[in-house]
């Protein structure tokens, strides 16, 4: 939530926001593309078409944002080894399975190597 202790950006990444190379978007719903965010506009202004997804609450925030991004015609990549949730393992597997029609599933190593490497 805005203006709370846990909305602070991780130190090394905060410098990128201060330099203006990255942007900070606030959200109060599951998706980062809800109507009250500037995410879509900020990405379009920068000519960004491909989005890489990582984060916690895979079955909620990550999935909701990825689905909205896909419906807005962004090219989406889900980093399977950089998402997590507290739900049982089958829930993570279900999200990854359902996202296959909307995104590429990769590992971090696959992204770095430029391959569609999966676990």
From TrEMBL:
GO terms for molecular function: hydrolase activity. Residues 2-96 form the Isochorismatase-like domain. Keywords: Hydrolase. The keyword Hydrolase applies. SUPFAM superfamilies: Isochorismatase-like hydrolases. Belongs to the isochorismatase family. This is Isochorismatase hydrolase.
